[in-house]
Amino acid sequence: MAKAAVLMAEGYEEGETLTIVDLLRRAGIECYTFSFKEEYVKGMHNMYVKADYVFNEAVKEYDMLILPGGRPGGANLKANPEVISMVQYFNENNKYLAAMCSGTVVLSEARVIDGKKVTGYTGYAEKLVGGQFVDDVVAFDQNIITSQGPATTYPFAFKIIEVFGKDTSLMKERLMYNFAGGK
Prior knowledge:
The chain has helices spanning 14-26, 73-78, 81-92, 104-109, 153-163, 169-174, and strands spanning 3-7, 30-35, 40-42, 48-50, 53-54, 64-67, 96-100, 117-118, 132-133, 138-141, 144-147. It is α/β, with parallel strands linked by helices. Helix 1 (14-26) links the parallel strand 1 (3-7) and strand 2 (30-35). The chain is globular.
């Protein structure tokens, strides 16, 4: 069974983070959150959420590493050398990396997007050094999945689910995604 690790640094974007976890779990993908010291992590909007685990080497056993955004969540992930090292490990071992909004800068810092199509938050074209910025809701190139921001969390999570080989059509129908204008 596919396993995804979602990193939660202080200032994570609650809507992005929790929606990703929710949708992946609904799809039957093992998805766990990881914090970096405290088990309860303060989000961008002062919501405290208990992480499943504290970040550790066991993350290397996962199939995908997910980096949500948030302010200063994305910057906090980028400033953490353990995160950068883990992102590089995933890339070197052809494992999936997924990042959205300000979490995408971590991929640039780790130098894993060189020549790859990526997207990110408005104005991030110059922050995603080495990547080929595209103005798409979700970009998928080789082992990298990126997305723009809080309103793009559903298509981002659906792309992750699809990359793991699962059909999202029934899930989209049950969640009324298509009714709400999603594609």
